[in-house]
Amino acid sequence: MLSVIKQEKIVGMIFYYRGEKVILDSDLALLYGVETKVLLQAVKRNLMRFPKDFMSRLTQYEFKNLRSQFVTSSWGGRRFPPYVFTEEGVAMLSGLLNSERAIKVNIEIMRAFVRLRKTIESNKKLAKKISTLEKKYDMQFKIVFDAIRALIKEEQKPRVKIGF
């Protein structure tokens, strides 16, 4: 059942919001196999477990911007701004949703967050090594180092999905 949910899919659902890595409530509901309103009902019954650094709601402006990216119809889709959950918020959800699926999905989500953190850290280390090498060698290698930096920046850009 859960072998269908791959980390790449989960990583694709994580985005940056106000400097934090977060997942939309609707994406979490999809992963957990519940309706978004069911997920939010569980959260609202336990609001003390979700401080602002665990969960927040998009502003109307952010929601409008998000809707325009997903191209929702004027009569369908969400009417209210979604909630977003940080890594800590997702971990807190694991205490609320006790189904076998929720536990397994939570483990995969935590692994995806860790994977992203490691990727970001390795890119920082690589950039530092390149900078050190550039200082060590003279300007004849500047072109090579500029090309490597350009490739790193290109790799970090979100990729546009092609196909269905």
What does this structure look like?
This protein has 164 residues and is α+β, with helices and mostly antiparallel strands. 60% of the residues lie in helices and 9% in strands. The chain has one domain: Mlu1-box Binding Protein, DNA-binding Domain. Strands 1-2-4-3 form a four-stranded antiparallel beta sheet. Strand 1 and strand 2 form a beta hairpin. The longest helix is centred in the last third of the chain and has 37 residues, at 100-136. The model has no long low-confidence stretch (mean pLDDT 78).
Topology record:
Elements: H1 7-13, E1 15-17, E2 20-24, H2 25-32, H3 36-45, E3 55-57, H4 60-70, E4 83-86, H5 87-96, H6 100-136, H7 142-156
Helix pairs in contact: 1-6, 2-3, 5-6, 6-7
Span from first to last CA? 21 Å
**Per DSSP, what share of the residues sits in E-state strands of 2 or more residues?**
5-15%
| Extended strand count | 4
Please list the strands of the largest sheet in the order they lie side by side.
1-2-4-3
What's the architecture, going by CATH?
Roll
Structural class: alpha+beta
- Give helix % range: 55-70%
Low-confidence stretches: none
Determine the mean pLDDT. Answer: 78
Could you describe the largest sheet, including whether it forms a barrel?
4 strands, antiparallel
